[in-house]
Specification:
There is one protein chain. With about 425 residues, the protein is α/β, with parallel strands linked by helices. The chain folds into two domains: about 190 residues, Alpha-Beta Complex (Spore Coat Polysaccharide Biosynthesis Protein SpsA, Chain A); about 230 residues, Four Helix Bundle (Hemerythrin (Met), subunit A), CATH 1.20.120.1760. α6 crosses α9, α7 packs antiparallel against α8 and α8 runs antiparallel to α14.
């Protein structure tokens, strides 16, 4: 984003400041707006418009944000936000940033419950989201409105601009927004905020089961000092418990082979469910990092290994057959072959640490096949499937399936790796 774009957060008078310091998802409203401007648009200069004394502070705020407090406004183009509103950060990307004022409008949208509806100041049949773009040439108009009414001046300017047709309207019917005026609207804003964390690429089990259980926990965790990286490490505990129950449940705790398998499967399913919390906290508190992506990916792979090996060792003991031991060791070797190939791709091609950015490019037909069965290959699905097998007393069957899945993943990633190396070599030779 160009350096001539600033941010303005309208706090207003003492009453407006009080609303803007209410917390949603572990952050005060004004902190949330500042971080959204910083991470989404790259804005480094932010004006906090307040008629009363206000000192910006927050442990989550980047040190390179330059804050200006008081009633002065920037002389540059600016994204202007009403401090007491909460809205989806994607609204910030909708502005075309021309020479005209642009006002973001929306429609009431239901959340999980009927009461969870977007809300804001009415503009005819629509509602003001709480954010607008003001070019430098129109900053005097904004200044006059805020001087007349520090708390509602921005809202009045938005309504006037739309009704008189003097600016552009920016709309997105799918995104939420809430004007926070009391505790009820604060809770509603928080519910809609966390509901928006569901990802379109979520797997079948993640959508239908896991998110329903992880999001309420993430709401609680957002008010703690735990970071996404700390949550990633803590969630490994479920995988270690799964390994302990599978390998030593019978010998140490006197569990039957069924119950040691069931508890092992349950622990890895809990690991799968709460694996979503680190990403949810990262997105809701703007704490995502490249290192965090890699940490989450590698920890997931370690947790998978613990469960796969633990299942093989359980079957080796429960079924008294060396075949399961050999299958487990082979699965482990194949899994990490696939992991290393994938890491190489993420480093040298995708430039991320997120394994969902791995793309099959060796052939169009194979890419279509992988896309067709993508939900079956996702971690949420296969760990839930193995949990079901453990509940049915059939985890030993899962050991064979783990081997087949690892063999397929290793074959695909190795073939693609050497195909890409050959293409790169041919390009160099040419």
């Amino acid at each position: 984003m160009s350096d001539d774009l600033s941010g303005v957060i309208v706090l207003g008078s003492e009453e407006g400041i009080s609303r803007s310091t209410m917390k949603v998802g572990g952050l005060t409203l004004w902190e949330r707006h500042a971080l959204a401007m910083y991470h989404v648009l790259g804005i480094r200069t932010i004006h906090l418009y307040a008629t009363d004394d206000f000192e910006p502070s927050g442990s989550t705020l980047p040190s390179d944000i330059e804050f200006h407090t008081g009633t002065s406004l920037p002389e540059t183009n600016a994204i202007v936000v009403q401090g007491s509103h909460v809205f989806h950060k994607e609204y910030l990307k909708r502005f075309t940033m021309t020479d005209a004022i642009e006002v973001a409008l929306g429609v009431a949208r239901s959340g999980k419950w009927r009461s969870d509806r977007s809300s804001g100041p009415a503009v005819d049949e629509l509602m003001f989201v709480g954010v607008m773009y003001v070019p430098a040439g129109k900053m005097r108009v904004l200044s006059d409105r805020l001087s007349e009414d520090p708390d509602r001046g921005l809202v009045k300017l938005a309504i006037q601009t739309v009704r008189e047709g003097k600016g552009l309207v920016v709309m997105d019917e799918a995104l939420f927004f809430v004007e926070v005026t009391d505790e009820n609207s604060r809770r509603r804003a928080e519910r809609l905020l966390f509901a928006s964390l569901r990802k379109p690429q979520d797997g079948l089990i993640a959508r239908s089961i896991n998110r329903h259980l992880s999001l309420p926990v993430s709401r609680i965790l957002s008010y703690t000092s735990l970071t996404p990286n700390q949550l990633s490490v803590l969630n490994m505990g479920f995988a270690f418990l799964a390994f302990v129950f599978l390998v030593w449940g019978n010998a140490l705790f006197g569990l039957s082979w069924y119950w040691s398998a069931f508890l092992g499967g349950l622990m890895i399913q809990l690991n799968s469910i709460y694996d979503g919390c680190d990403g949810e906290i990262a997105r809701v508190k703007f704490q995502y990092t490249h290192f965090g992506d890699w940490l989450d990916t590698i920890i997931d792979d370690i947790c998978n290994s613990l469960f796969f090996l633990g299942s093989a060792l359980w079957a080796w003991q429960a079924k008294n057959s060396n075949l399961y031991l050999y299958l487990g060791l082979a699965t482990l070797a194949l899994q990490w072959t696939a992991n290393v190939m994938m890491y190489h791709y993420l480093i040298h091609v995708a430039g991320t640490g997120n394994n969902q950015d791995y793309k099959v490019t060796v052939s169009e037909g194979l890419a279509r096949l992988v896309d067709t069965v993508k939900y079956v290959t996702k971690r949420d699905f296969h760990l839930f499937f193995f949990f079901v097998l453990s509940a049915l007393g059939m985890l030993h069957v899962g050991v064979f399936l783990m081997f087949v899945a690892a063999l397929g993943a290793a074959s695909l990633t190795v073939v693609q790796h050497f195909h890409m190396r050959k293409e790169a070599s041919d390009d160099t030779g040419a």
